[in-house]
Amino acid sequence: MNRIRLEQESGRVPGALFLAGERVELRTIESEDIEAVRRWMNHTEIRRYIDEFRYPTSRTEYEEWADDGVSSGRVDLLICVDGDPVGRIRLVPLDETRGWGNLGFVIGPDHCHNGYATEAADLIVEYAFTELRLHRLEGKALAPNEGSQRVLETLGFVREGRRREVAVVDGEYVDEVWYGLLRAEWADTSGDSDGA
After folding, report:
1. Tell me: the pLDDT tens digits for 164-193?
2. Tens of pLDDT along 23-63?
3. pLDDT tens-digit map of 122-180
4. R_g of the chain, CA atoms, integer Å
5. How far apart are the first and last CA of the chain?
6. pTM, whole model, 2 decimals?
7. 24-28 vs 75-81, strand pairing mode
8. From CA 114, how far away is CA 119, in angstroms rounded?
9. CA–CA gap between residue 178 and residue 51 (Å, rounded)
10. How far is CA 164 from the centre of its chain?
11. CA angle 54, 176, 1 (to 5 degrees)
12. How far is 177 from 145, CA to CA, in rounded Å?
C-alpha cells in the first residue's frame, strides 16, 4: 500500500502538491487546470457515466461550480502523472460530523486503463481514514462502468446495494451500484495496525 507523503511544491504543475504515490501526485485544482477538467467532463466517454455532467458545461459554469466546492469543505484534487493532469478525485459530499464521505474519481479518456484511478483512490482512502479520521467511505458507479467498480472493489469496498434503472446510458436505463468501506475494514487490509 502506498504511504502518504506530503511534499512541497515541485513546480511541475500549477497546483500545490497535496499527496504523492509511486506514480501519481494529487494536487490542488487551480484556474490553469479548469479547462482540462472541463474538457474531460464534456467528453462523451466520461459524461455518460456522471449524471451531474450530463449537459454541456461552459468554463464559467465550471468555475462557479468549482468555487462553490471550495467553501463547502470538500476534497477535490487533480491527479497528475509526470507533471501532467490525467484525472480528478474527490470526497464529495464530506460530512465530518457523521464521519462519512463519498469518493468520486474520473480519468481523462487518453489516460484510462493505466491504474491511475486505483493509485489515486488508494491515497485518498488512506488520507480520509488517517488524516480526516472518517469512519466510512462510500462510492457508486453506474452498472456499465465496470472500470470504476473494479477500482472500488480492488480497494476493499463492499458492494452494498443497487438502485434500479436510475440513469440512462446509451439510451438504456441502467442501475447504480453502491459501495461502502469502513475504517476498520480498511485497517484490516491496509496493514494499519492501530486501526487508524
Report:
1. 999 988 889 999 999 999 999 999 988 665
2. 999 998 887 877 777 777 776 776 666 766 666 677 777 66
3. 999 999 999 999 999 999 999 999 999 999 999 999 999 999 999 988 889 999 999 99
4. 16
5. 14
6. 0.83
7. antiparallel
8. 10
9. 15
10. 23
11. 100
12. 10
Query: DSSP letters of the chain?
Result: -PPPB-----SSSSSPEEEE-SSEEEEE--GGGHHHHHHHHHSHHHHTT-GGGSS---HHHHHHHHHHHHHHT-EEEEEEETTEEEEEEEEEEEETTTTEEEEEEEE-GGGTTSSHHHHHHHHHHHHHHHTS--SEEEEEEETT-HHHHHHHHHTTPEEEEEEEEEEEETTEEEEEEEEEEEHHHHHHHHT-TT--
Give me 105's grid cell: 474519481
Of 120, 183, 191, the residue nearest 151 (C-alpha)? 120
10 Å Cβ neighbour count for 73?
Answer: 12
Is 45 buried (19+), middle (13-18) or exposed (0-12) by CB count in 10 A?
exposed
